[in-house]
Amino acid sequence: MDKRNKAFFSEFSQGERDDRWFHSRTGRRLSPGSCIGNFLEFKKYEPAHYLTTLEYLNMQLTGIPITDPTSAAMTGMLDIHSSGWQNEILELCGIRESALPEIMPTGTVIGNLTPEAAEAMGLTTNTKVVNGGHDQYCAAAGANVLEAGDILLSTGTAWVIFGATRFLNHDSILSVGPHVCPNMYGVFSSVPTGGAALDWVRNKLFGDSQLSFDVLDNEVMKRIGINENIFLRPNFSNGKASIEGLDLHSDAYDIALAAMEGVVFEVRRIMERFVAEGHIVQSVKLIGGASKAAPWQKLICSIIGDVQLFHDTDIACLGAAALGGVAVGIWSDLKEASKILSSSELLARDTIESEYYEKKYLRYSK
After folding, report:
1. In whole angstroms, what is the distance from residue 192 CA to residue 19 CA?
2. pTM exceeding 0.70
């Protein structure tokens, strides 16, 4: 996150403007890395308009800078109740609503290609352009995370845990925004250094060996369920990462496994927070880099439970395609579209390994 203009955070978080004040208006707590800080930085240059990538691309395609509620929510300036711009936040920032893009519903036709765009793309001006959405919301659409209880585990450099829900909890530490399907919200949190934690181990402890992930995976698989005393807490983003329980027999592969375990333990903590705040956790769907690696799959099943594994590498793109197809009448709704576009298989947990990791998780959580 860009925190160059983090001075605004202390200025805005005064008096009654606490976490609940912001969350009850926007669905998000204010943080030093909030997009609001970027907008305030841009404000110094007196811009006529504030655009992010979605609005810019829509403008290049149709001539109109349009955004959608899922993307607008990421700015921290969306009214979570009306899906329009939040007037109190805009007044606080000193930003005119007229300088912001129009918000249209996700998955609606916003216009046709301009002659210039059509020529550049080899298409016709009869080609319709459909309003897209934020990447995690599109991934949720592609993975059929559309009903309360559906959970998306999206794994990459950061790991995002995204759940579909029907209600708002403004005392929450979780972020929430309008979902791409009607009358639903998307609630989410992340492990900021999910995949990055393993990269750190690989780069720092294996040096210039250029260790392949195949070799790493094979060595880690041999150690799963064995090293009960080694823990790595992957809190690198706030400077609180730690390793404990090493002895003279421990090696870099042991630490790699501990890093992977720590990431999945953090995911479980977040899912427990979902439940504590009243959300349902019923069906977990796994996408991203971890869905292709046997150790990650095994650890996720052992620590979290059964998961639905998606084989498609570009599930967010399939979700965007589903939005487009529904908008022009190819499919009746997103549920029908996602079932046709994507495929998955059930990964079941191993009872013995689950018992082992239940005990280790309880020690990790103390």
Report:
1. 20
2. yes
